[in-house]
Amino acid sequence: MRHLIDILDLSLSEIDDLIHTAEDIVAHPEAYEAACRGKILGSLFYESSTRTRLSFESAMCSLGGSVIGFADAETSSASKGESLQDTIRVVSGYCDIIAMRHPHDGAALAAAMTAEVPVINAGDGSHNHPTQTLTDLLTIHREKGRIRDLTIGLCGDLRYGRTVHSLVEALSRYPGMRFILIAPPALRMPEYALELMDRSGIEYRETDNLDEAIPELDVLYMTRIQRERFPSEDEYQALKDSYILTKDRIRPAREDMAILHPLPRVNEIATEVDADPRAAYFRQTKNGKLIRMALILKLLSEKEGHFQLIPENAAKAARNLCRNSRCITVHESSVVPYILKKSSRDAVRCLYCDNRIG
Ligand code: NCD
Fold it and tell me: Does residue 311 carry a pLDDT above 60?
């Protein structure tokens, strides 16, 4: 059975196929309206969401299927202390595919380990968000006409923002990509994502200066400072206004620079920018539904996949070995912790959240 936990679970040609299907859905929506008749999506959102949840649910409705689920963990038995893996085992019996969002890093992988139906990670803590990345890739393809030979600026909260972690993983596999990582020192990209870029030989530089970077960019990907992930409110207050994109600020940008944002925004893009034809973020939200339709179709139509839950070199480890306070293994005692040697530098990392162990 095939899940989508990490964007690297999909090959580049599979991503191409998804983009192709999404374009075909735009051209021939009627051909898809009964494609999932009789199928049920379990939509399990343990954390707030507007776009991701509603686009998944809308996607399943437009494919002729139906939806069950919850939008708030407080209304599920999680509030009575049921473990994530028990809930998933039960819900697997009620639906054909699950889309889930959870506040803890690695939760989607933990769910996939007991699920009897495909699990789609709709965001696990500050770790990954692969379906946002599919949305972003479709948007780059539609706005720029290609996913290659582009300079991409990622700006804002690169530490806690899960969308950018999955996006660099994905884009590092395309030829001729170059990244400018724009963040205050306290919100730099995590080590594992930088290592991945080093391994793939991709060109990147880190800076905290947005104005200096803007003229070089083909795509500017803005992100929200992730208030809910900060250890303290004071730290958030000190960084919350790090970058605010205004009309003045984009004056030196290329005429065809696309501005993306996974949304929701707080104040990092002034509303005056919305009228600029380069502002692609509302078009991006529509692409999210299309690519999720394509993904649901793909996972439901596949019986077998090559996704492996436990890679050969993973070893059972002592409980709570992972020191990431946001990791699912720290929060749910029923999740068996695994460690994994992952990088070229032989760092030993938690299988669920990628945090370095030891
Ligand atoms: C993002 C998320 O939830 O990670 N939103 C989304 O899914 N479109 C970005 C964010 O919350 O800042």
Answer: no
